[in-house]
Design goal:
The protein has one helix spanning about 180-190, and strands at about 5, 10-15, 20, 25-35, 40, 40-45, 50-55, 65, 75-85, 95-100, 105-115, 120-125, 135-145, 160, 170-175. By secondary structure, the chain is mainly beta. The protein is elongated.
Amino acid sequence: YRGYAGQVASGVVKVGDEVTVQPSGRSTTIAGIDFAGREFTEAFAPQSVTLRLADDLDVARGDLIVTSRHVPELSQDIDGTVAWLADSALRPGAKVLVKHGTRTVQALVRSIGGKLDLNSAELLPADELQLNDIGHVTLRLAAPIPAEHYLQSRSTGAFLLIDAQDGGTLAAGMVGDALLETREALLDVSTATIRA
């Protein structure tokens, strides 16, 4: 018996579905779905199940098993929005760990694209992020990950920045430009008309 246990992050998986393992890119089909000693024909988010694959593939902790009709692209460059949670400032050139799902990879902060002014909903230029700042960052990862835009998938679009020295959480992040989307949403709310 060889099964791969994990949580269905989104959608539905069925016996017979063609799947791809990321980041290796190897494909196979689902031979069985098990949970608590019982076999199922399908599983859906957020169930935790064990998948049996038709082929003997090397699947490691942190890998994604995705249906082949929707395979996220792998990237070593991430543009994202982070809420900075640490007392020390985040500056370009900082070395951090990125925790994406159960995978953790080393990363370098390439740039800070600005921070959100919560009063005006404007993106202001910034050289650093301080405690409680919400800002836009560009990261370069040591290994590619299958990160999707947060609006497409909250589970594969979210990440944490972790201090490589002490393992403390530095920031919570979302893949994509949530700052621009947040600003547009705030502007929409401020111009809304309500009838009573």
